[in-house]
Amino acid sequence: MVAALAGITPAASAAQDARPTWRDCAGQGIPAGMQCAAIEVPVNWAKPDGPKVELDLARLPATEPAHRIGSVLGIPGGPGVSGIEDLKRAAADLTELRRRFDLVAYKPRTTVWRDQMPSSCMQPGTSLFEPQSRKQYEALAAAMTKAFEACQSADKTGLFAHMDSLSVARDMEAVREALDEKKLSFMASSYGGVAAGAYARLFPQRIRAMYLDGTINQVDGWPDQTLRTLPVLERVFTRFTTWCADTPACALHGQDAGAVWHKLIRDADRRPIPVTSSEFGKGKLTGWHLRSFGFIGDPGPDSSRWLAFAAAVDKARNGDGSGFADFALGNARIWAAPGALAMTCADDRGYRSYAQLQKFRRQARKISPNFGGAAFDALGCTGWPLPVANPSRPLPTRGLPPFLGVGSTWGDYVLTESFTRMIPGSVTVGYDGPGHVMYLSGKKCPIQHATAYLTDLRPAKPGTTCPPE
Protein backbone atom coordinates (compact mmCIF):
# COMPACT_ATOMS: atom_id res chain seq x y z
CA MET A 1 0.00 0.00 0.00
CA VAL A 2 1.29 3.44 -0.92
CA ALA A 3 0.62 6.26 1.52
CA ALA A 4 -0.80 9.34 -0.17
CA LEU A 5 -2.40 12.57 1.01
CA ALA A 6 -5.29 13.96 -0.98
CA GLY A 7 -4.50 17.44 -2.24
CA ILE A 8 -7.45 19.10 -0.55
CA THR A 9 -7.41 22.37 1.35
CA PRO A 10 -9.82 23.43 4.10
CA ALA A 11 -11.26 25.93 1.62
CA ALA A 12 -12.98 23.06 -0.18
CA SER A 13 -15.97 23.05 2.14
CA ALA A 14 -19.59 22.08 1.94
CA ALA A 15 -20.97 25.33 3.32
CA GLN A 16 -24.70 25.51 2.87
CA ASP A 17 -26.62 28.36 1.24
CA ALA A 18 -29.09 27.97 4.09
CA ARG A 19 -28.67 26.64 7.60
CA PRO A 20 -30.17 23.21 8.27
CA THR A 21 -33.82 23.12 9.24
CA TRP A 22 -34.22 21.76 12.75
CA ARG A 23 -37.36 19.88 13.74
CA ASP A 24 -38.47 17.73 16.64
CA CYS A 25 -37.06 14.24 16.25
CA ALA A 26 -39.43 11.34 15.70
CA GLY A 27 -39.03 7.73 16.76
CA GLN A 28 -38.56 5.52 19.79
CA GLY A 29 -36.43 6.46 22.79
CA ILE A 30 -35.98 10.12 21.81
CA PRO A 31 -34.94 12.31 24.77
CA ALA A 32 -37.26 15.23 25.43
CA GLY A 33 -36.33 18.28 23.40
CA MET A 34 -34.10 16.53 20.88
CA GLN A 35 -34.11 18.19 17.47
CA CYS A 36 -33.05 16.68 14.14
CA ALA A 37 -31.75 18.01 10.83
CA ALA A 38 -29.49 16.92 7.97
CA ILE A 39 -26.71 18.29 5.80
CA GLU A 40 -25.13 17.16 2.55
CA VAL A 41 -21.39 16.74 2.05
CA PRO A 42 -19.35 15.54 -0.94
CA VAL A 43 -18.69 11.82 -1.16
CA ASN A 44 -15.21 12.78 -2.37
CA TRP A 45 -13.93 16.01 -0.84
CA ALA A 46 -11.50 16.37 -3.74
CA LYS A 47 -14.58 16.84 -5.95
CA PRO A 48 -16.86 19.14 -3.90
CA ASP A 49 -19.29 19.52 -6.81
CA GLY A 50 -19.61 15.76 -7.28
CA PRO A 51 -22.02 13.27 -5.69
CA LYS A 52 -23.23 14.04 -2.19
CA VAL A 53 -24.03 12.02 0.92
CA GLU A 54 -26.59 13.11 3.51
CA LEU A 55 -25.56 13.15 7.16
CA ASP A 56 -28.25 13.22 9.85
CA LEU A 57 -27.77 15.61 12.78
CA ALA A 58 -29.34 15.79 16.23
CA ARG A 59 -29.02 18.22 19.11
CA LEU A 60 -30.22 18.74 22.63
CA PRO A 61 -30.29 22.53 23.17
CA ALA A 62 -28.69 24.02 26.27
CA THR A 63 -31.09 24.12 29.19
CA GLU A 64 -29.72 27.47 30.42
CA PRO A 65 -29.54 29.44 27.16
CA ALA A 66 -28.63 32.68 28.94
CA HIS A 67 -25.38 31.01 30.06
CA ARG A 68 -24.79 29.01 26.90
CA ILE A 69 -21.10 28.60 25.93
CA GLY A 70 -21.49 26.82 22.58
CA SER A 71 -21.88 23.33 21.15
CA VAL A 72 -20.24 20.02 22.01
CA LEU A 73 -20.05 17.62 19.06
CA GLY A 74 -19.82 13.91 19.74
CA ILE A 75 -17.39 11.91 17.59
CA PRO A 76 -18.60 8.30 17.70
CA GLY A 77 -16.46 5.19 17.53
CA GLY A 78 -16.78 1.89 15.73
CA PRO A 79 -16.31 3.06 13.09
CA GLY A 80 -19.88 2.69 11.97
CA VAL A 81 -21.55 3.71 15.23
CA SER A 82 -24.18 6.45 15.02
CA GLY A 83 -23.43 9.47 17.18
CA ILE A 84 -27.16 10.09 17.40
CA GLU A 85 -27.65 6.73 19.11
CA ASP A 86 -24.75 7.58 21.44
CA LEU A 87 -26.43 10.86 22.41
CA LYS A 88 -29.76 9.17 23.04
CA ARG A 89 -27.99 6.66 25.27
CA ALA A 90 -25.88 9.20 27.18
CA ALA A 91 -28.33 12.13 27.43
CA ALA A 92 -29.40 11.43 31.00
CA ASP A 93 -25.76 11.29 32.17
CA LEU A 94 -24.85 14.56 30.44
CA THR A 95 -27.52 16.72 32.09
CA GLU A 96 -24.94 18.91 33.83
CA LEU A 97 -22.96 19.44 30.63
CA ARG A 98 -26.14 20.35 28.77
CA ARG A 99 -26.81 23.29 31.08
CA ARG A 100 -24.18 25.36 29.23
CA PHE A 101 -23.92 23.58 25.87
CA ASP A 102 -25.97 22.34 22.97
CA LEU A 103 -25.14 18.64 22.74
CA VAL A 104 -24.80 17.79 19.06
CA ALA A 105 -24.50 14.40 17.41
CA TYR A 106 -24.32 13.20 13.84
CA LYS A 107 -24.40 10.09 11.73
CA PRO A 108 -20.94 9.76 10.13
CA ARG A 109 -20.39 8.62 6.56
CA THR A 110 -19.16 5.29 7.93
CA THR A 111 -22.59 4.72 9.47
CA VAL A 112 -24.27 5.67 6.20
CA TRP A 113 -22.03 3.09 4.52
CA ARG A 114 -22.85 0.48 7.15
CA ASP A 115 -26.56 0.95 6.48
CA GLN A 116 -26.32 1.04 2.67
CA MET A 117 -23.40 -1.19 1.67
CA PRO A 118 -24.12 -4.17 -0.60
CA SER A 119 -24.73 -7.34 1.39
CA SER A 120 -21.97 -9.01 -0.62
CA CYS A 121 -19.46 -6.68 1.07
CA MET A 122 -19.94 -8.59 4.31
CA GLN A 123 -18.82 -11.86 2.72
CA PRO A 124 -15.34 -12.56 4.16
CA GLY A 125 -12.44 -12.68 1.76
CA THR A 126 -11.02 -15.53 3.82
CA SER A 127 -10.93 -16.78 7.40
CA LEU A 128 -8.05 -14.97 9.03
CA PHE A 129 -4.97 -16.87 10.12
CA GLU A 130 -1.42 -15.95 11.09
CA PRO A 131 0.86 -16.34 8.06
CA GLN A 132 3.97 -18.37 8.82
CA SER A 133 5.71 -17.68 5.52
CA ARG A 134 5.88 -15.06 2.81
CA LYS A 135 3.88 -17.37 0.55
CA GLN A 136 1.05 -17.59 3.09
CA TYR A 137 1.13 -13.82 3.57
CA GLU A 138 0.90 -13.20 -0.16
CA ALA A 139 -1.99 -15.66 -0.45
CA LEU A 140 -3.84 -13.84 2.36
CA ALA A 141 -3.19 -10.47 0.72
CA ALA A 142 -4.40 -11.73 -2.68
CA ALA A 143 -7.61 -13.13 -1.17
CA MET A 144 -8.33 -9.86 0.61
CA THR A 145 -7.53 -7.74 -2.46
CA LYS A 146 -9.99 -9.79 -4.50
CA ALA A 147 -12.69 -9.32 -1.84
CA PHE A 148 -12.04 -5.57 -1.55
CA GLU A 149 -12.23 -5.08 -5.31
CA ALA A 150 -15.46 -7.07 -5.56
CA CYS A 151 -16.98 -4.94 -2.79
CA GLN A 152 -15.91 -1.72 -4.48
CA SER A 153 -17.41 -2.89 -7.77
CA ALA A 154 -20.74 -3.59 -6.04
CA ASP A 155 -20.78 -0.23 -4.22
CA LYS A 156 -23.32 2.24 -5.60
CA THR A 157 -22.71 4.95 -2.98
CA GLY A 158 -19.11 5.78 -3.92
CA LEU A 159 -18.23 5.73 -0.22
CA PHE A 160 -16.00 2.64 -0.35
CA ALA A 161 -12.99 4.72 -1.42
CA HIS A 162 -13.71 7.70 0.87
CA MET A 163 -14.15 6.57 4.47
CA ASP A 164 -10.73 7.61 5.76
CA SER A 165 -10.74 9.82 8.84
CA LEU A 166 -9.52 12.89 6.94
CA SER A 167 -12.78 12.72 4.98
CA VAL A 168 -14.68 12.26 8.25
CA ALA A 169 -12.88 15.28 9.72
CA ARG A 170 -13.94 17.43 6.76
CA ASP A 171 -17.51 16.28 7.40
CA MET A 172 -17.12 17.42 11.01
CA GLU A 173 -16.00 20.83 9.75
CA ALA A 174 -19.12 20.98 7.59
CA VAL A 175 -21.17 20.28 10.73
CA ARG A 176 -19.42 23.16 12.49
CA GLU A 177 -20.25 25.47 9.59
CA ALA A 178 -23.86 24.30 9.63
CA LEU A 179 -24.05 25.13 13.34
CA ASP A 180 -22.58 28.59 12.64
CA GLU A 181 -20.06 28.18 15.47
CA LYS A 182 -16.58 29.76 15.29
CA LYS A 183 -15.17 26.92 17.38
CA LEU A 184 -16.50 23.61 18.64
CA SER A 185 -15.88 21.50 21.70
CA PHE A 186 -15.70 17.74 21.13
CA MET A 187 -16.27 14.44 22.91
CA ALA A 188 -14.55 11.63 21.03
CA SER A 189 -14.92 7.97 21.91
CA SER A 190 -12.91 4.89 20.89
CA TYR A 191 -12.18 4.91 17.12
CA GLY A 192 -13.54 8.45 17.09
CA GLY A 193 -10.08 9.43 18.31
CA VAL A 194 -8.77 8.80 14.79
CA ALA A 195 -11.19 11.36 13.37
CA ALA A 196 -10.35 13.67 16.29
CA GLY A 197 -6.68 13.48 15.38
CA ALA A 198 -7.49 14.13 11.72
CA TYR A 199 -9.58 17.16 12.67
CA ALA A 200 -6.77 18.48 14.88
CA ARG A 201 -4.43 18.11 11.90
CA LEU A 202 -6.70 19.96 9.45
CA PHE A 203 -8.57 22.47 11.61
CA PRO A 204 -6.65 23.14 14.84
CA GLN A 205 -7.95 26.73 14.99
CA ARG A 206 -11.54 25.44 15.20
CA ILE A 207 -11.07 23.40 18.39
CA ARG A 208 -12.19 25.01 21.63
CA ALA A 209 -11.76 21.83 23.69
CA MET A 210 -11.27 18.12 22.99
CA TYR A 211 -12.29 15.32 25.36
CA LEU A 212 -10.97 11.87 24.40
CA ASP A 213 -12.53 8.79 26.00
CA GLY A 214 -10.79 5.46 25.40
CA THR A 215 -9.49 6.66 22.05
CA ILE A 216 -6.95 5.28 19.60
CA ASN A 217 -3.74 7.14 18.76
CA GLN A 218 -3.49 6.53 15.03
CA VAL A 219 -0.86 9.26 14.80
CA ASP A 220 1.75 6.91 16.32
CA GLY A 221 0.67 4.04 14.07
CA TRP A 222 -1.32 0.89 14.70
CA PRO A 223 1.66 -1.38 15.49
CA ASP A 224 2.76 1.03 18.22
CA GLN A 225 -0.74 1.06 19.70
CA THR A 226 -1.02 -2.71 19.77
CA LEU A 227 2.39 -3.09 21.38
CA ARG A 228 1.39 -0.56 24.06
CA THR A 229 -1.63 -2.63 25.06
CA LEU A 230 0.16 -5.97 25.39
CA PRO A 231 1.86 -5.27 28.77
CA VAL A 232 -1.51 -4.10 30.10
CA LEU A 233 -3.13 -7.32 28.90
CA GLU A 234 -0.41 -9.35 30.59
CA ARG A 235 -1.09 -7.53 33.88
CA VAL A 236 -4.82 -8.15 33.57
CA PHE A 237 -4.12 -11.82 32.84
CA THR A 238 -2.14 -11.94 36.09
CA ARG A 239 -5.25 -10.54 37.79
CA PHE A 240 -7.17 -13.44 36.27
CA THR A 241 -4.74 -16.10 37.46
CA THR A 242 -4.70 -14.58 40.95
CA TRP A 243 -8.51 -14.50 40.97
CA CYS A 244 -8.62 -18.11 39.81
CA ALA A 245 -6.25 -19.21 42.57
CA ASP A 246 -8.55 -17.56 45.12
CA THR A 247 -11.84 -18.75 43.59
CA PRO A 248 -12.94 -22.38 44.02
CA ALA A 249 -15.55 -21.95 41.26
CA CYS A 250 -12.79 -21.32 38.71
CA ALA A 251 -12.37 -24.45 36.56
CA LEU A 252 -8.57 -24.16 36.88
CA HIS A 253 -8.56 -23.57 40.65
CA GLY A 254 -5.76 -25.36 42.41
CA GLN A 255 -3.60 -25.39 39.28
CA ASP A 256 -1.20 -22.93 37.69
CA ALA A 257 -3.76 -21.33 35.39
CA GLY A 258 -1.12 -19.33 33.55
CA ALA A 259 0.92 -22.43 32.78
CA VAL A 260 -2.20 -24.28 31.61
CA TRP A 261 -3.03 -21.44 29.20
CA HIS A 262 0.52 -21.18 27.89
CA LYS A 263 0.69 -24.92 27.19
CA LEU A 264 -2.71 -24.80 25.47
CA ILE A 265 -1.73 -22.05 23.02
CA ARG A 266 1.64 -23.67 22.33
CA ASP A 267 0.03 -27.05 21.65
CA ALA A 268 -2.70 -25.50 19.48
CA ASP A 269 -0.07 -23.85 17.28
CA ARG A 270 1.47 -27.28 16.73
CA ARG A 271 -1.79 -29.21 16.45
CA PRO A 272 -4.83 -26.98 15.81
CA ILE A 273 -8.00 -27.99 17.64
CA PRO A 274 -10.87 -29.06 15.32
CA VAL A 275 -14.13 -27.29 16.18
CA THR A 276 -17.62 -26.89 14.81
CA SER A 277 -19.61 -23.70 15.27
CA SER A 278 -23.39 -23.73 14.86
CA GLU A 279 -23.11 -20.39 13.05
CA PHE A 280 -19.75 -20.55 11.27
CA GLY A 281 -19.33 -24.25 10.53
CA LYS A 282 -16.16 -26.28 10.87
CA GLY A 283 -12.74 -24.82 11.54
CA LYS A 284 -9.53 -25.22 13.47
CA LEU A 285 -8.30 -23.19 16.41
CA THR A 286 -4.62 -22.38 16.40
CA GLY A 287 -2.75 -20.78 19.25
CA TRP A 288 -3.04 -17.53 17.30
CA HIS A 289 -6.86 -17.77 17.34
CA LEU A 290 -6.80 -18.32 21.09
CA ARG A 291 -4.30 -15.52 21.78
CA SER A 292 -6.28 -13.12 19.60
CA PHE A 293 -9.85 -13.95 20.59
CA GLY A 294 -9.77 -16.18 23.66
CA PHE A 295 -9.26 -13.95 26.71
CA ILE A 296 -11.40 -10.95 27.66
CA GLY A 297 -9.87 -8.63 30.23
CA ASP A 298 -13.16 -7.50 31.74
CA PRO A 299 -14.28 -10.19 34.21
CA GLY A 300 -17.93 -9.25 33.70
CA PRO A 301 -20.80 -9.30 36.23
CA ASP A 302 -19.96 -11.69 39.08
CA SER A 303 -16.80 -12.66 37.13
CA SER A 304 -19.01 -14.48 34.63
CA ARG A 305 -16.63 -13.96 31.69
CA TRP A 306 -13.61 -15.24 33.60
CA LEU A 307 -15.58 -18.25 34.83
CA ALA A 308 -16.52 -19.03 31.22
CA PHE A 309 -12.94 -18.51 30.02
CA ALA A 310 -11.50 -20.88 32.61
CA ALA A 311 -14.09 -23.53 31.74
CA ALA A 312 -13.32 -23.13 28.03
CA VAL A 313 -9.57 -23.51 28.66
CA ASP A 314 -10.18 -26.63 30.75
CA LYS A 315 -12.19 -28.24 27.94
CA ALA A 316 -9.85 -27.09 25.17
CA ARG A 317 -6.78 -28.68 26.73
CA ASN A 318 -8.68 -31.97 26.48
CA GLY A 319 -9.44 -31.44 22.79
CA ASP A 320 -12.86 -29.75 23.10
CA GLY A 321 -12.57 -26.21 21.76
CA SER A 322 -16.32 -25.54 21.75
CA GLY A 323 -16.00 -22.83 24.38
CA PHE A 324 -13.99 -20.73 21.95
CA ALA A 325 -15.45 -21.84 18.61
CA ASP A 326 -18.17 -19.27 17.98
CA PHE A 327 -16.22 -16.23 19.12
CA ALA A 328 -12.89 -17.17 17.51
CA LEU A 329 -14.25 -18.39 14.18
CA GLY A 330 -16.72 -15.51 14.02
CA ASN A 331 -14.06 -12.87 14.58
CA ALA A 332 -11.69 -14.53 12.11
CA ARG A 333 -14.40 -14.05 9.49
CA ILE A 334 -15.82 -10.67 10.50
CA TRP A 335 -12.33 -9.17 10.50
CA ALA A 336 -11.96 -10.38 6.91
CA ALA A 337 -15.23 -8.82 5.68
CA PRO A 338 -14.30 -6.09 3.16
CA GLY A 339 -17.32 -3.93 3.95
CA ALA A 340 -16.34 -3.64 7.60
CA LEU A 341 -12.65 -3.17 6.90
CA ALA A 342 -13.22 -0.46 4.29
CA MET A 343 -14.08 1.88 7.16
CA THR A 344 -10.56 1.63 8.63
CA CYS A 345 -7.97 0.41 6.12
CA ALA A 346 -7.43 3.84 4.55
CA ASP A 347 -6.29 5.01 8.02
CA ASP A 348 -3.09 2.98 7.57
CA ARG A 349 -4.26 -0.03 9.55
CA GLY A 350 -2.83 -2.90 7.49
CA TYR A 351 0.57 -4.52 7.20
CA ARG A 352 2.41 -3.19 4.18
CA SER A 353 4.72 -6.19 3.81
CA TYR A 354 5.56 -9.58 5.27
CA ALA A 355 8.75 -8.06 6.68
CA GLN A 356 6.67 -5.56 8.67
CA LEU A 357 4.49 -8.37 9.97
CA GLN A 358 7.55 -10.40 11.01
CA LYS A 359 9.08 -7.43 12.83
CA PHE A 360 5.86 -6.73 14.67
CA ARG A 361 5.40 -10.39 15.62
CA ARG A 362 8.91 -10.59 17.08
CA GLN A 363 8.27 -7.48 19.16
CA ALA A 364 4.85 -8.66 20.29
CA ARG A 365 6.02 -12.11 21.36
CA LYS A 366 8.90 -10.63 23.34
CA ILE A 367 6.56 -8.25 25.16
CA SER A 368 3.71 -10.72 25.66
CA PRO A 369 4.32 -14.48 25.75
CA ASN A 370 0.62 -15.07 26.37
CA PHE A 371 -0.91 -12.84 23.68
CA GLY A 372 1.82 -11.73 21.26
CA GLY A 373 1.33 -12.42 17.56
CA ALA A 374 0.14 -10.88 14.34
CA ALA A 375 -2.62 -8.32 14.98
CA PHE A 376 -5.93 -9.50 13.51
CA ASP A 377 -7.07 -6.01 12.49
CA ALA A 378 -3.86 -5.39 10.53
CA LEU A 379 -4.17 -8.81 8.90
CA GLY A 380 -7.65 -7.94 7.72
CA CYS A 381 -6.44 -4.77 5.99
CA THR A 382 -3.65 -6.67 4.24
CA GLY A 383 -4.28 -6.40 0.52
CA TRP A 384 -6.09 -3.02 0.69
CA PRO A 385 -6.10 -2.04 -3.00
CA LEU A 386 -6.25 1.76 -2.69
CA PRO A 387 -3.73 4.36 -1.52
CA VAL A 388 -3.64 4.95 2.23
CA ALA A 389 -5.39 8.31 2.43
CA ASN A 390 -4.54 9.00 6.08
CA PRO A 391 -1.06 7.65 6.85
CA SER A 392 0.27 7.64 10.40
CA ARG A 393 2.65 10.56 10.87
CA PRO A 394 3.51 13.23 13.45
CA LEU A 395 0.75 15.64 14.45
CA PRO A 396 1.55 19.37 14.48
CA THR A 397 0.39 20.60 17.88
CA ARG A 398 0.91 24.34 17.57
CA GLY A 399 -2.33 26.18 18.17
CA LEU A 400 -4.08 23.25 19.85
CA PRO A 401 -5.62 23.77 23.30
CA PRO A 402 -4.89 21.27 26.09
CA PHE A 403 -6.93 18.07 25.68
CA LEU A 404 -8.47 15.91 28.40
CA GLY A 405 -8.41 12.14 28.12
CA VAL A 406 -9.97 9.35 30.15
CA GLY A 407 -9.09 5.68 29.92
CA SER A 408 -9.34 2.42 31.79
CA THR A 409 -6.10 1.40 33.51
CA TRP A 410 -7.14 -2.17 32.64
CA GLY A 411 -7.11 -1.41 28.94
CA ASP A 412 -7.25 1.76 26.86
CA TYR A 413 -5.61 4.31 29.21
CA VAL A 414 -2.21 3.76 27.59
CA LEU A 415 -3.67 4.48 24.15
CA THR A 416 -5.46 7.67 25.16
CA GLU A 417 -2.51 8.90 27.21
CA SER A 418 -0.14 8.38 24.29
CA PHE A 419 -2.38 10.77 22.33
CA THR A 420 -2.80 13.48 24.97
CA ARG A 421 0.90 13.55 25.89
CA MET A 422 1.64 14.95 22.41
CA ILE A 423 -0.30 18.14 23.20
CA PRO A 424 1.18 20.53 25.79
CA GLY A 425 -0.86 20.96 28.95
CA SER A 426 -3.02 17.89 28.32
CA VAL A 427 -3.91 15.28 30.94
CA THR A 428 -5.41 11.80 30.91
CA VAL A 429 -7.45 10.63 33.89
CA GLY A 430 -7.15 6.95 34.73
CA TYR A 431 -10.29 4.96 35.54
CA ASP A 432 -9.09 2.24 37.92
CA GLY A 433 -11.21 -0.60 36.63
CA PRO A 434 -12.30 -2.40 33.47
CA GLY A 435 -14.45 -0.79 30.83
CA HIS A 436 -14.39 1.28 27.67
CA VAL A 437 -15.79 4.76 26.89
CA MET A 438 -16.69 5.93 30.37
CA TYR A 439 -19.21 8.65 29.57
CA LEU A 440 -21.26 6.21 27.49
CA SER A 441 -21.03 3.75 30.39
CA GLY A 442 -22.45 6.32 32.79
CA LYS A 443 -19.35 6.48 35.01
CA LYS A 444 -19.91 9.49 37.27
CA CYS A 445 -16.32 10.45 38.11
CA PRO A 446 -15.07 10.60 34.50
CA ILE A 447 -18.22 12.49 33.45
CA GLN A 448 -17.60 15.07 36.20
CA HIS A 449 -14.05 15.62 34.96
CA ALA A 450 -15.26 15.89 31.35
CA THR A 451 -17.94 18.42 32.32
CA ALA A 452 -15.52 20.56 34.34
CA TYR A 453 -12.95 20.55 31.55
CA LEU A 454 -15.39 21.32 28.74
CA THR A 455 -16.96 24.12 30.77
CA ASP A 456 -13.89 25.79 32.28
CA LEU A 457 -11.16 24.68 29.82
CA ARG A 458 -9.03 23.34 32.66
CA PRO A 459 -7.94 19.69 32.46
CA ALA A 460 -7.71 17.66 35.66
CA LYS A 461 -4.46 17.67 37.60
CA PRO A 462 -1.79 15.25 36.32
CA GLY A 463 -2.06 11.88 38.04
CA THR A 464 -5.80 12.16 38.69
CA THR A 465 -7.59 8.80 38.89
CA CYS A 466 -11.19 7.70 39.27
CA PRO A 467 -12.15 4.74 41.47
CA PRO A 468 -14.13 1.88 39.93
CA GLU A 469 -17.90 2.31 39.93
Automatic annotation (TrEMBL):
Keywords linked to the UniProt accession: Hydrolase
One example GO MF annotation: hydrolase activity
Domain Peptidase S33 tripeptidyl aminopeptidase-like C-terminal, first and last residues per copy: 377-466
The keyword Transcription regulation is assigned to this record: no
Domain AB hydrolase-1: from-to ranges: 163-261
Record keyword Hydrolase present: yes
Cross-referenced SUPFAM superfamilies: alpha/beta-Hydrolases (SSF53474)
Protein name (Swiss-Prot/TrEMBL): Alpha/beta fold hydrolase
